[in-house]
Input
Amino acid sequence: METSEQDQPRDSGEWLRLLLMLLFAFVFFNVLSAVFVVVLVAQFVFRLATGNVNGRLARFAAQLTRYGTQILRYITYTTDTRPFPFVDWPIDEPDSV
Output
């Protein structure tokens, strides 16, 4: 007896990816956005108080931006590379900030 494609078990890798995509979407839309708000408020207050931006905070914001990009690229199937913590935390380029 032949089996059709419908009788074949579903690829468990796609179910795992769906689970990871949902998790990373939650991280992006809830956790990361909240951290961005804290960073922007802190940077604004620092700028008001000192007249300058905080370099460490700016570098951290650049890293968060890269991390958000990693998440968006993964959940939109632009890449198969899983974001942090499956790869190293994104670092900023020395001349980017």
